[in-house]
Amino acid sequence: MSESAITAKDLTKSFGTFVAVNKITFDVAHGEVFGFLGANGAGKTTAIRMLVGLLEPTSGEAHVAGFDVRTQRDEIRRNIGYMSQRFSLYADLTVQENIELYGGIYGLSDAQIRQGSEELYESLDLAHTADSLVRTLPLGWKQKLAFSVAMLHKPRIVFLDEPTGGVDPITRRTFWEMIYAAASTTTIFVTTHYMDEAEYCDRVSIMVDGRIAAMGTPAELKTQFSAPSIDEVFVQLARPAQKSA
Fold first, then answer.
1. Which alpha helices (H) appear in 110-193, and where do they start and end?
2. Left, alpha or beta for 60 (phi > 0: left; psi -120 to 50: alpha)?
3. Measured between alpha carbons, how far is 173 from 137 in angstroms, rounded to an integer?
4. Using CA atoms, how far apart are residues 30 and 32, in angstroms rounded to an integer?
């Protein structure tokens, strides 16, 4: 097994003359909760889409679960879970139908889907919603369900792209408790523009204008920038970018 769950070296994505992700280099250890932070438009989602095999890099290289993002996309998809920022379940299917659909996509047997369904309903206390359309659920429950479905096939790595966007602070905290529980067996790569969520991560990077401007543990970054919070670290990093814009 590779020493790192994810590695990237000079990973770059351009759209015409616009460079969305500019030569980023980092690695994520097995079992780490790695926060990929930045404001909207910083390049986080573009980077994550390259790592999960949805976008072809313009240049550079990356490996996810030991597989090359250019040549081994199918292998990557079999070993990861992915939850997008635009809620990833089908609103007009029931909860159970979504579980069965994604279980099939992940290649699970009928028996594995049944077992996964039982475990999901028990952990979320959602058995009473099995026949409910997903669109009828409150947003917080939808997000928890989407995360659990992304974990259904027990992936080695799960990518969460701004999973707490739009939910209330209590639901955000509960969601992070689910992330911690999953991290006992799975590497977590989470993007967010909520700087306070960095405190929940083992290590974070902060993207500014397509580049990684800083990386380290929350404590290391606060010490490095003489800041009381990661939010203040981000403000210090973002100010030069704003002035040059």
1. 110-124, 139-150, 169-182
2. left
3. 19
4. 6
**Rounded to an integer, what distance in angstroms lies between the CA atom of residue 20 and that of residue 237?**
18
pTM of the model: 0.89
- Dist. CA 6–CA 89, nearest whole Å: 26
| Helices and strands of the chain, counted as H and E runs | 8, 10
pLDDT of residue 27: 96
pLDDT lower than 70: segments of the chain: 1-2, 85-87, 240-245
SS3 category, 68? strand
- Amino acid letter, 107: G
Look at the alpha carbons of 37, 74, 109, 105 in this order and tell me if their dihedral is positive or negative. Answer: positive
Going through the chain in order, the beta strands assigned E by DSSP cover 4-15, 18-29, 33-38, 59-64, 67-68, 80-83, 157-161, 187-192, 203-208, 211-216
Crossing angle of helices 139-150/110-124, nearest 10°?
A: 140
**Cα–Cα dist 30/157, whole Å:** 8
Helix axes 169-182, 139-150, angle to 10 degrees: 10
Look up residue 245 and give its two tokens: 């814009």
- Taking the CA atoms of 149, 155, 160 and 164 in sequence, report the sign of the dihedral they define: positive
Please measure the distance between the N-terminal and C-terminal CA atoms of the chain and give it in whole angstroms.
43
Cβ atoms of 67 and 53 closer than 8 Å: no
Q: Look-up: residue for tokens 């509960």?
A: 174
Q: Which residues pair with 227 in a beta bridge?
A: none
Query: How far apart are the C-alpha atoms of 131 and 140, rounded to whole Å?
Result: 18
